[in-house]
Please model this.
Amino acid sequence: MTIDHGYPAVRMHIAGEWCQGGSAETAPVENPATQETIGTVALATADDLDRALAAAEKGAEVWRETSIAERTAILHAAADLIEERAAEIGRVMTLEQGKPLAESTGEARRTADTLRWHADDARRAYGRIIPSAPGTVLTVRREPIGPVAAFTPWNFPVGGPNRKISSALAAGCSLIIKASEETPATAAALVACYADAGLPAGVLNLVFGEPAEVSAHLIASPVTRLIAFTGSVPVGKLLAAEAGRVMKPSLMELGGHAPVVVCEDADPAQAARRAAQAKFFNAGQVCTSPSRFLVHESVIEEFTAEFVRAAEAITVGDGLDQGTRMGPLANERRLRSIQRLTEDAVARGAKILTGGERLDRPGYFFEPTVLTDVPDDAELLHEEPFGPLAPVMPFTDLDEALRVANALPYGLAAYGFTRSAATAEKLSAALEAGILSINHCGGSVHEAPSGGVKDSGYGREGGPEALDAYLITKRVSHLLAG
Ligand code: NAD
Model:
């Protein structure tokens, strides 16, 4: 493992320096494919967090005073470094998160592109001049909100942190980011690209620690002006409440339980292949992963047969091995949850068509699994599975399927398959989700916004909307001096 600032000892980045925490305390980092400890990550004390806050406060001043041309040039240089180092970043990501190497390096390459897109979009963060009374200039300005406290999980170890970092920096904000302690070397490798590209000290600070302590400390500080979180609904609600107590805005990218509605006029085999591809991507550990398959009774047999074939064709293994299409689950918590959801569904009468078991080898491997006859009260149909489980349910009436699709408090992604333009329009209007794909399972793209409704959160990442949370809108009315 050769990556700078990575294993065997991942450090934090505060005020432009790579450092251990003041207490020298560390946490072990595990390879989920082998369950071996591969290194350690430095953990922050309250004093370290205060240093990061002071650095971000200074960094915000420096960065907002940096010309847009210089900012954009630094961000493009960072993107070039991410691309140059994609293979190295991908390898570290696979070691600590488990996904296949092709997915890891692909994620790193897409991350470089996302950064370029946001860097360029920042040039268009226009205000406006509004017609007003003679002698008065009425303008609306958009200004960086100030230092951001960001928290990101382990499922997209480089893409996740970078969505927040690239939007915040493009908007002219500084950041303190607490990336996941389970995938710290990937986050450190990302931050190293920004530092090596010439980002001024203090503009981007990376910390690790006890998540609840770090978030409470950073949210309570008057220095931070925005809380940006990606993770589970319960933690998101907790952090949004903490932010609300100190009247801070927050950006919440939370979980989902995405319905897939396959209509009677869809091509069931094609729908099954596309849905299975999306289902087992990153072992199902994606907030937009399709997770409830509602299929018209007239096509369910063909859909299910093809879906099972696609699931059985997936090679599960160590992400570093050539030919692996699906790696292990990222940690033991995930494996336990997936086993619990499967056992609960079976105990209530569900049938397993394929999969259903942990692999008999070290590592948190679980088979791609397809279930039928899953009763309405199974936990799997209510709790976000975040793993390779695909429950397939029949429907006869589209309105009833839409009622079931919308019945959960989640509202992140949804998918529909139909050949009818009228039905596609009906699905688009009716499905309660922030991200909808028709006739495919579209992944996230940096040109367009992603985000949820209902319990899945608020605010958008990607697209021109990505800058909204990081900019404040200021009205300036200027009566020109006589
Ligand atoms: P979790 O809720 O314990 O943690 C999710 C993330 O939030 C982790 O990165 C964790 O470090 C962080 N976190 C937890 N408590 C925190 C706190 N008080 N302050 C700041 N950060 C905190 O869940 P988990 O076991 O890591 O993952 C399981 C669930 O999380 C999944 O079922 C899924 O619903 C959700 N999840 C969602 C996403 C997403 O992209 N929206 C990503 C990862 C996990």
The chain has two domains: 12-254+456-475, 258-444. The pocket of nicotinamide-adenine-dinucleotide is lined by residues 151, 153-155, 180, 211-212, 215, 230-232, 235, 238-239, 253-255, 287, 333, 384, 386 (CB under 6 Å).
